[in-house]
Amino acid sequence: MKNLARSLAIVLAVGAMIQTVCVYALENTIISLEEEEATIISLIEFKRRTDSYGESFQDASYELRNDFPNIKTEEDFKEAFAEHALRYLHAIGGEKSLKRVLGKEEYQRLTGDGPGI
Amino acid sequence: MAKIELKNEFRPFAPNLILIPGGPGLGPVSFGPLATLIKNINVFFYYPTGTYGDHADKLISYEEQIEELKIEVENLDNVYLCGHSFGGIQAVDLALRISPRVKGIICIASPFSSEAFKEVERNGSKNKTLEQIKMDDVFVNDPSNENYKRWFASYAHLYFSSSNVVQGHNMLLDDSVNVKNYLGARAAAALKEQLLMEIKKSSIRRLFVTGEKDRLLPVEILREESSLGGFMFKVIKDAGHFVHFDQAENTSALIEEFVIN
Predict the structure, then answer these.
(1) Which pLDDT belongs to residue A103?
(2) Is the ipTM of this complex over 0.95?
(3) Interface touch A108/B190, C-beta < 8 Å
(4) B86-97 and B179-189 are packed helices; what angle lies between their axes, rounded to 10 degrees?
(5) Considering only CB atoms, which chain A residues are within 8 Å of B158?
(6) What range defines the domain where residue A6 resides?
(7) The domain containing residue B47 runs over which residues?
């Protein structure tokens, strides 16, 4: 009984450590520039193919199911693209540049200009 | 290209009053009732690029819009610039640039300061109706001229007195607009607070007109703008943000008195 309790304690402790390591790893994930490049390119190529064949997104998204299981609608696609574009920018150290660009007059509409005056 | 157009019979020695619409990118149709009432003054409508049936294929920045206005006005003498809202910002800015030619400025409900623009944001985002929320989405996703008008008109309750909301809404839908003026200059318009300090130092005569029932920019906010710029300040009863459209008669009397006297 004593040995069983001790073994259980060890298993629980190891399990907790593994979980901690995994959480720590997610928070400190190093974004791979090559992976993000490949992902963005594959998303662009997918969009280009579906546009040129006139396929409905619902039908075409079957092709993405392995690499992008969460993309089922066009909105999912846009969100995934935006996310990976931001990750790419992060990988090349472009966050400040992004803020500068978003501050430019011609891009204000993306962030909202406010009521007409 | 932008243009000015005389709206009454030309009197050779009379002052030249230029009516500049807001938006940016609205046409001058809101000045229609006012223009018919003003006497003894040459009244011109200013049509920004894209607002009289001409085509605009690119965004027009704030600086470009000021330059277009300057080109139309700089050959006139004895000029009075009367701008509504964003048009008032342009009026002050242009007056400073070509000051000997400009004898007076009239700002109708124009925001300049960061406080005023915060008030615009605050009032523009509270108690939105379903139609407004829908139009926000429509306009963001497809910023066409037609959607710009519809989006603007969906906020009619912010812009017109209660008794004139329907007429104001319909007037905006009938207007000829250029969304590229809005997209190109709206953000820059919120960075012109300094103009008030500069105009205060000038000898150009200044009148600030506001509507008692303005729900976009309340009287007390605009009183502060007026004070910062050293304007004479007048409040028109039963008028909203489009003071000149809600109360054309009272506004025309005020403008005539200011310009002639």
Answers:
(1) 60
(2) no
(3) no
(4) 70
(5) 115
(6) 1-30
(7) 3-260
